[in-house]
Each structure stands twice: as structure tokens, then as C-alpha cells.
């Protein structure tokens, strides 16, 4: 049974507030600007066979949430992994959540599972049989496939995801601007004169997962 729109909004806001209290390294997620039933995410992987990968994904939440079926997770593009469909990029969530329990399961746990699959690779009941067989019988060839996937994700980091290109809350990246090195130095030194004519509120340097934000924007964005 479809829920009242306002009741569902309240439930999803509560879920997002719970998520913000969790420590899930390497994952950024934000509700879509088109529908609160879609959450856009990016996973930065810092260790393991997928180290260096920057993988985009979307969480699709059923309109009966938190009752009924479990959410769906799709990676775009698909990642070479035994638990992910090579054709659609769908991650096998039901492997970990065979039945979604209203009072026992939360969306932050889905993010934890996403992080886990890239750290501990399991091949039983695999979705991508080719990846599972290669992992078991030829680990070297499997790692080569994974490396290609990781490199592709980094090559495509500045290319907008076609599935979220019209989403005002899409997570997008722009190339590093050398001018911002000076801004970073002044920011860390506590001075502000370098901010003149600089557009944007936060930025990241490739290979360094540290977000720098102008101090004079924090209050307005937290209220």
C-alpha cells in the first residue's frame, strides 16, 4: 500500500538524519532533487583490490518504505564484481537483506553493505558468474579486470552520469584548479583575502579525500 506523501517524506528525512550520524568512510550520498525516493551516491575506495575506484551509484527506495520490499542499488556504469549485474549494474542487496524489516533495517546499513562488498569479496550465489569464476580460478586475471574498471572510473570522473544529468542534486566533479592552491593556503592560515572572485564553496584535490570549505559559508549552510 502506497504511503501518504507527507508521512513518507518524514520517514525518509528521519532515515537521512540517522545516516548522518553514522561513520561510513569513502561514501557520499544525497537525496535526488527530482524524487526523495532516489538517493545519489559516490563511493571512493581507498584500500583493497578496488583501491582508487570512484564508483557512482543510486539507491531506489520503494514508495511503501519502510514496509514491503528492500531498496535497490544500481551502479552507473556497472562495476566488475561477483555480486553485481554486468548488464544493469544492480547490486544484489537481497543477499544481505532477504526480507526488509521495518524496525530492524535502515538505509545507512545499505551503505555499509556497499562498502563491505569491495573489501570482502564473496562468490557464493554470484550474480556475475564470470567474475566469480575468474576470482576463484584465476585471481590474477580477475585483478586485471578490476584494475581496468578502476581506471575507467577515474577516467570518467568528470563526465556527468547520464542517469542523473538532469538532477539538480547530482554529484558532479570538475577538474582541479591550480588557483585554488593559493586559496587552500590562505584558508589553512585563517586569512580570507584570497577568496575574492573565487566561485564555489568547497573543493577537493585529486588523490586527497579532504574537503575544504570556506568558513564564512558554514553558518548559512548549516541553518
Fold and architecture overview:
With 223 residues, the protein is of the alpha+beta class. It has one domain: Ubiquitin Conjugating Enzyme, CATH 3.10.110. The protein has six helices and seven strands, in the order αβββββααααββα. The strands form two sheets. Strands 1-2-3-4-5 form a five-stranded antiparallel β-sheet. Strands 6-7 form a two-stranded antiparallel sheet. α3 crosses α4 (139-155). The longest helix has 17 residues, at 139-155. The model is unreliable at 211-223 (pLDDT under 50).
List keywords for this structure.
223 residues; alpha+beta; Ubiquitin Conjugating Enzyme; two-stranded antiparallel sheet; 7 strands; globular; disordered C terminus; UBC; UBQ-conjugating_enzyme/RWD
Write a brief structural summary.
With 223 residues, the protein is α+β, with helices and mostly antiparallel strands. It is built from 6 helices and 7 strands, in the order αβββββααααββα. The strands form 2 sheets. It has a 5-stranded antiparallel β-sheet. A two-stranded antiparallel ribbon has the order 6-7.
In total, the number of strands is: 7
Cα end-to-end separation:
35 Å
Number of DSSP helices?
Answer: 6
Strand order of the largest sheet: 1-2-3-4-5
Helix content: 25-40%
Radius of gyration using CA atoms only: 19 Å
Instruction: Tell me the series of helices and strands, N- to C-terminal.
Output: HEEEEEHHHHEEH
Beta-strand residue fraction:
15-25%
CATH top level?
Answer: Alpha Beta
CATH topology: Ubiquitin Conjugating Enzyme
Low-confidence stretches: 211-223
Q: What's the rounded overall pLDDT mean?
A: 85
Main pleated-sheet profile: 5 strands, antiparallel
> How many distinct domains?
1
Content-based structural category: alpha+beta
Amino acid at each position: 500500500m502506497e504511503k501518504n506523501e507527507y508521512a513518507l517524506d518524514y520517514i525518509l528525512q528521519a532515515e537521512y538524519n540517522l545516516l548522518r550520524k553514522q561513520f561510513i568512510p569513502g561514501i557520499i550520498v544525497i537525496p535526488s532533487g527530482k524524487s526523495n525516493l532516489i538517493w545519489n551516491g559516490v563511493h571512493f575506495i581507498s584500500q583493497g583490490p578496488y583501491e582508487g575506484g570512484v564508483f557512482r551509484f543510486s539507491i531506489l527506495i520503494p514508495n511503501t518504505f519502510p514496509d514491503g520490499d528492500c531498496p535497490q542499488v544500481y551502479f552507473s556504469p556497472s562495476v566488475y564484481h561477483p555480486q553485481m549485474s554486468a548488464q544493469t549494474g544492480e547490486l544484489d542487496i537481497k543477499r544481505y537483506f532477504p526480507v526488509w524489516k521495518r524496525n530492524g533495517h535502515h538505509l545507512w546499513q545499505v551503505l555499509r553493505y556497499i562498502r563491505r562488498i569491495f573489501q570482502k569479496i564473496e562468490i557464493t550465489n554470484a550474480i556475475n558468474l564470470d567474475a566469480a569464476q575468474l576470482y576463484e580460478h584465476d585471481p590474477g586475471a580477475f585483478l586485471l579486470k578490476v584494475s581496468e574498471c578502476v581506471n575507467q572510473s577515474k577516467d570518467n570522473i568528470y563526465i556527468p552520469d547520464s542517469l542523473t544529468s538532469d538532477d539538480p542534486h547530482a554529484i558532479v566533479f570538475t577538474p582541479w584548479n591550480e588557483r585554488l592552491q593559493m586559496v587552500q593556503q590562505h584558508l589553512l592560515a585563517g586569512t580570507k583575502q584570497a577568496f575574492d572572485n573565487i566561485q564555489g564553496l568547497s573543493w577537493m584535490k585529486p588523490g586527497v579525500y579532504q574537503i575544504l570549505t570556506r568558513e564564512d559559508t558554514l553558518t548559512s549552510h548549516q541553518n
